[in-house]
Structure to design on (63 residues):
């Protein structure tokens, strides 16, 4: 179950902070690009956190 919740957290963050559900495109290629860009930005932000001591918060990277 741990992996499942990690995946759900990734989708939650993508929906809430990177505009996963805000695309108005209808073309499959454009929707695919938006999907990949949103999830990649979430993963990069979490990876950027690294091994630092502070707790990761989105307002640290969101502008």
């Amino acid at each position: 179950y741990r992996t499942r919740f990690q995946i759900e957290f990734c989708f939650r963050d993508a929906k809430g902070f990177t505009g996963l559900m805000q695309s108005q495109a209808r073309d499959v290629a454009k929707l695919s690009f938006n999907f990949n860009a949103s999830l990649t930005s979430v993963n990069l932000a979490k990876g950027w956190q690294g091994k630092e001591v502070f707790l990761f918060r989105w307002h640290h990277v969101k502008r």
